[in-house]
Each structure stands twice: as structure tokens, then as C-alpha cells.
From TrEMBL:
Subcellular location: Cell membrane
Alphabetic keyword roster: Cell membrane, Membrane, Transmembrane, Transmembrane helix
Membrane topology term: Multi-pass membrane protein
UniProt KW RNA-binding keyword: no
The organism's taxonomic lineage, starting at the top: Bacteria, Bacillati, Actinomycetota, Actinomycetes, Micromonosporales
PANTHER family noted in UniProt: ABC TRANSPORTER PERMEASE PROTEIN YPHD-RELATED-RELATED, RIBOSE IMPORT PERMEASE PROTEIN RBSC
Pfam family, one: BPD_transp_2
Transmembrane segments: 54-71, 91-122, 134-154, 160-180, 209-228, 256-276, 297-325, 337-357
Keyword Cell division: no
Protein's name in the database: ABC transporter permease
Length: 362
């Protein structure tokens, strides 16, 4: 007759001599500890970067700061650093929206087109129709929301790939903007004070910070909190990691995707306001490289192009890295073409590191 044996529980005695039964640690814990001890130093780094995507861009930012400050001490001056912050504010804001889309395993090539359309319409209605500044800003944000909603609807309702959808709407939004404005710019002197307000600067110690930079900082805090501490944020990560698994878990995948594009569009509309203050005018030829630069900031910041992994903190670091490289190489006297080359190499290295991190094994 076969007998069933149970693993005995470890017994100990307390100070009074009584028998006390204790529970043995789960086998899985011991196995995990054993596997951890067997990992090589390189594998431990791989696991660390997988669980903390912002570490690698933070290290690159620190190293680049030290190198450029050593080459030219002017780089570390408050004036130079203030200028870098002002320069990366627009791209940094756009990169927040791009991060939301990429976290869902999508991509948005219409970033710049939506922003320019929102900016030009807000400026034109204020200049030509006497619309108050508050209303003009709301119209610009509303157009951004509409552009994001259109992208999201085409992706979720019709099932088109995000790359194709945003490539098409890139041309549509650009053409609409040019037709509406007839290719004409609107100068800051013709705009209400509120539209130019984001370009006003104030002193913070030895630094000069613009209102636009403050708005971008608040934007990062709000979106970062939403992604890390709300059910919506967890759903965004789940959809990007595995749509089918998210659907089986009861997540309404299409609604999450649509909301990501919608929020991103609203961010682009807000960025249009920041851009007016930064440029001192509303021009249809502004931020011509915004699409690639926003993607560059996101990728360098450690967000995976395959979705499901990343954070807006990394995106902020990525935008600062690009700003540091351009400013630092400029102060070092490096030709502009080599600056573009350096940023391109950064993107390739970031994607290669992302691929390596994704192959992490438990």
C-alpha cells in the first residue's frame, strides 16, 4: 500500500522548552536566490536596466555633462544650462505625448504637424478675429485633442497600423495648416499677451527659467504620476506589453489606445502655446524636425519601441541628453553635421541596448 508523505515542518523549541512549529521558506524563494547567485555581473546589469529603465540615460546625462564641462567650462555656466532648458522645453513636451503612444507599442509621426496646426489656428483666430487669449489657447488645445482623437480612431476602429495612420495624418494636418494660414507667420506683437506669456522668463538663483519650462515640468509630474499610480497608467503598460493578454485580463484595449492618442493630442495642443512663447511668433515652418526629435528623446530615455516598458522620467533625461550634446558640441567648435551624426549614433546605441535588455531571462 502506497503511503503519501508530507514534508516535515521544521521544529524548534522556545526558551521554555515548548515545541514551536515554523514554516519553511517557499522553494521558489530559494530557487530565485540560487539563480541570482549564478548570474554573471553583466546579467545583473541587464536585469537592473530592465527593472529601472531610467538608470542608463541618467548615467549618460551625467557623463556627457562632465565631459562637455571639461572641454569647455562655459558649458556648466548657469547661462548655458538655462539656455539648454529653454531649447529642450518644446521637444521635451512633445516627447511626453510620444512616450504615451510608444508605451502602447505605437508611434506618432504627426507630432509636429498637429502642434503647428494648433499653433497657427490659435494665433490666426487671435490676430484676425480678435478672439481673447484664453479662448485662443483653448482652441489650440482642442485642435490637438481632435488630431489625437482622429489618429486613435483610425488605429482602433479601422485597425490601421499606427505608423501608416500618423504618416498619413502628418501630410493631412500639414496641408490644412498651410492652406488655412496661406503660409504666413504671425508675429508676437500681433498676438494677445497670454499667447506670449510662456516665453517670459524669471530668475531662479543664477538661472533664467521661462514660464514654458515650468509648464513642461508640471506636465511631466502629472503624466508621470498618472502612469505610475493610476489604473489607467497600468492599463497603458499592459496593452503595450501584450494586447491579447490585456484583453483576456478584462482591459478594454481599444479604449486605452484611444485615450493614449487623445491625451497625446492634448499635450501637442498645449505645446503649441509653449512654442509661440519660445519662438516669439507663430510660424508654419517651426519645429520641422519635431517628429524625429521627439522619438529620439523617447528612445534615448529608455522607453522600448516595442511598448510596455519605460517612463516619462527617462524621456526627460533623453531630451536633456540631446540638448547637452548639441550645446556641448557647439561650444566645443564641432561642425553641425557632426552634431547630427552624434545624435544619430546615440539613437542606434539606445535601440541596441533596448534590444539587449529585452532579452533578459529570469
Amino acid at each position: 500500500m502506497a503511503h503519501r508523505f508530507n514534508h516535515p515542518k521544521p521544529i524548534t523549541t522556545n526558551g521554555m522548552g515548548a515545541v514551536v512549529t515554523t514554516t519553511a521558506p517557499p522553494a521558489g524563494t530559494a530557487a530565485e536566490q540560487f539563480a541570482l547567485r549564478r548570474r554573471s555581473p553583466l546579467q545583473r546589469i541587464q536585469h537592473l536596466l530592465h527593472s529601472r529603465p531610467a538608470i542608463s540615460p541618467f548615467l549618460v546625462l551625467i557623463i556627457s555633462f562632465v565631459v562637455f564641462a571639461t572641454i569647455n567650462p562655459r558649458f556648466a555656466s548657469p547661462n548655458s544650462l538655462s539656455l539648454v532648458l529653454q531649447q529642450v522645453a518644446v521637444i521635451g513636451a512633445l516627447a511626453v505625448g510620444q512616450t504615451l503612444v510608444i508605451l502602447t507599442a505605437g508611434i506618432d509621426l504627426s507630432v509636429g504637424a498637429i502642434t503647428i496646426l494648433s499653433m497657427m489656428v490659435a494665433a490666426k483666430v487671435a490676430e484676425g478675429h480678435g478672439v481673447p487669449g484664453v479662448v485662443a489657447v483653448l482652441i489650440g488645445i482642442g485642435l490637438g485633442l481632435a488630431g489625437g482623437a482622429l489618429n486613435g480612431a483610425l488605429v482602433t476602429r479601422i485597425g490601421l497600423p499606427p505608423f501608416i495612420v500618423t504618416l498619413g495624418t502628418l501630410s493631412v494636418f500639414t496641408a490644412v495648416g498651410l492652406l488655412y494660414t496661406r503660409g504666413q507667420s504671425v508675429q508676437a506683437t500681433d498676438l494677445p499677451d497670454l499667447l506670449n506669456w510662456t516665453g517670459e522668463s524669471f530668475a531662479v538663483g543664477r538661472f533664467r527659467i521661462t514660464v514654458g519650462v515650468v509648464l513642461v515640468a508640471v506636465l511631466y509630474i502629472l503624466v508621470g504620476f498618472a502612469l505610475a499610480n493610476t489604473a489607467w497608467g497600468r492599463h497603458v503598460y499592459a496593452v503595450g506589453d501584450d494586447k491579447e493578454a490585456a484583453r483576456l485580463a478584462g482591459i478594454r484595449v481599444d479604449r486605452v489606445l484611444l485615450s493614449a492618442y487623445l491625451v497625446a493630442g492634448g499635450i501637442y495642443g498645449l505645446t503649441a502655446w509653449i512654442l509661440i512663447g519660445r519662438a516669439g511668433a507663430a510660424s508654419p515652418n517651426a519645429i520641422t524636425d519635431a517628429n524625429l526629435e521627439s522619438i529620439t528623446a523617447v528612445v534615448i530615455g529608455g522607453t522600448s519601441l516595442f511598448g510596455g516598458r519605460g517612463a516619462v522620467l527617462g524621456t526627460l533625461l533623453g531630451a536633456l541628453i540631446v540638448g547637452f550634446f548639441r550645446s556641448g558640441l557647439s561650444l566645443a567648435g564641432v561642425d553641425d553635421q557632426y552634431r547630427v551624426l552624434a545624435v544619430g549614433l546615440l539613437v542606434l546605441v539606445a535601440v541596441a541596448v533596448d534590444q539587449w535588455i529585452r532579452r533578459v531571462k529570469a
